């Protein structure tokens, strides 16, 4: 299991002027290549370039970055914290089969990939429910775009 110490990129470890210079370079698409000590040039693939550009931009905003592989295993408490719910509610989701998990001894573990899958599904269902509710309110004539509250 990775620790935050080993996979955390702290912007305070890079001089501010260097981050600013990197941010300028990564703001220009297709202008970045890696050059090794022998002068061999390798262009960075677009998907990786976009990822690096986002990391540099966030770090230049003084935000730390934590990188996790998709197969990173979370405890039930860490997973519940990530999803913003109580541990017991999260465990109930596991027991209902809504999120896959595996056991390490007697403890449940959930991969980051499965958390992301559940989060996307949950968010999609929430958006769809809000869209249905908005449609029902509009059909009932209860939605007024110029509503100013109680007068």
Walkthrough of the structure:
The chain is built from 6 helices and 7 strands. With 151 residues, it is an alpha+beta fold. It folds into 2 domains: 8-66, no CATH class; 73-139, Multidrug-efflux Transporter Regulator, Chain: A, Domain 2, CATH 1.10.1660. The chain has a 3-stranded antiparallel sheet with strand order 5-7-6. A hairpin with a 2-residue loop joins strand 6 (102-104) and strand 7. The radius of gyration is 23 Å and the shape is extended. The model has no long low-confidence stretch (mean pLDDT 88).
Which helices and strands, and how do they pair?
Layout (H helix, E strand, L loop, with lengths): L3 H4 E2 L6 H11 L6 E3 L5 E3 L2 H15 L4 E2 L6 E3 H8 L3 H9 L6 E3 L2 E5 H28 L12
Antiparallel strand pairs: 1-4, 2-3, 5-7, 6-7
Structure in a nutshell:
The chain has 151 residues and is α+β, with helices and mostly antiparallel strands. It has helices at residues 4-7, 16-26, 46-60, 76-83, 87-95, 112-139, and strands at 8-9, 33-35, 41-43, 65-66, 73-75, 102-104, 107-111. α2 packs antiparallel against α3 (46-60) and α4 packs across α5 (87-95).
């Amino acid at each position: 299991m990775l620790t935050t110490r080993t996979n955390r990129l702290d912007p305070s470890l890079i001089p501010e002027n260097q981050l600013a210079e990197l941010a300028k370079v990564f703001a220009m698409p297709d202008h970045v290549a890696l050059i090794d000590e022998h002068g061999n040039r390798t262009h960075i693939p677009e998907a990786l370039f976009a990822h690096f550009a986002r990391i540099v931009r966030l770090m230049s905003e003084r935000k730390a970055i934590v990188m996790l592989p998709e197969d990173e295993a979370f405890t039930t408490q860490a997973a519940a914290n990530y999803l913003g719910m109580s541990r017991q509610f999260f465990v109930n989701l596991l027991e209902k089969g809504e999120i896959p998990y595996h056991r390490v001894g007697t403890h449940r573990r959930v991969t980051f990939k499965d958390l992301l899958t559940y989060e996307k599904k949950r968010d999609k269902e929430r958006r769809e429910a809000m869209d249905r509710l908005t449609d029902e309110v509009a059909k009932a004539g209860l939605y007024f775009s110029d509503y100013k509250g109680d007068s």
